[in-house]
Amino acid sequence: MSPAKRPGVLIVAVDGPAAAGKGTLAKNLASSLGLPHLDTGLLYRATARRMLDAGLSPEQDDGAAEAAALRPEDLARPDLRVPEIDRGASAVARQPGVRAALLERQRAFAQAAGGVLDGRDIGTVVFPDATVKLFVTASPRTRAERRLRQLHGDAAGADEALLEQTAQELAARDAQDAARAVSPLRKADDAVVLETDRLDADAVLARALEIVREREGALPSAT
């Protein structure tokens, strides 16, 4: 059953593939609008980490739903954005039990007072009636460069082989997420696409705020 959003509550769904810039946009958008922000991908990363720490495979059902009973300290770990967890998060995200366990947590976060949530199924499953739906994307090359900067702080020195490998890994993750039976990665029919290849974070934020104001009416200016 879809959640019932309270009238007047502003919920912004920011979806898209890995390293497209959706997380940065969601944080900046939440700050500009005075709304709480939830990185829903972090929930799946933390679940995968708990499974690996328990000696379980993220590919298996057994123990997955229990691992999704996250505590605040699980989300604050510094080892959630490494390649091993990239793969693990994609695996646990295919588990129906995990998605069911985390779905209500995501909805409860913003249902009453609003919020900005980023992930892969926010506008299609978590909040299909979100006030604004954005789908953030970029070319494989741009996303590979961003992922390397995220992991190593700088992509300028990366050779073509490493960039190509990273782009292939991201493409494989996209294919997994798009093909899963439960809550696949896809653009909501009423989402606005933001291609970020030639836009810096400030420009992406400015465009997103324009879209929010068009949908919601006059809102406070970004500071």
TrEMBL record:
The keyword Kinase belongs to this UniProt entry's keyword annotation: yes
Classification via SUPFAM superfamilies: P-loop containing nucleoside triphosphate hydrolases
Domain Cytidylate kinase: 12-213
Any one GO molecular function term: ATP binding
Subcellular location: Cytoplasm
Signal peptide start-end: none
Top-level taxon in the UniProt lineage: Bacteria
A Pfam family of this chain: Cytidylate_kin
Keyword terms, alphabetized: ATP-binding, Cytoplasm, Kinase, Nucleotide-binding, Transferase
UniProt binding sites for ATP: 16-24
Enzyme Commission number(s): 2.7.4.25
GO biological process, one term: pyrimidine nucleotide metabolic process
Keyword Plastid: no
Family the entry assigns: Belongs to the cytidylate kinase family. Type 1 subfamily.
Family annotation (HAMAP family): Cytidyl_kinase_type1
UniProt-recorded name of the protein: Cytidylate kinase
The organism of origin for this protein: Tanticharoenia sakaeratensis NBRC 103193
Gene that encodes the chain: cmk
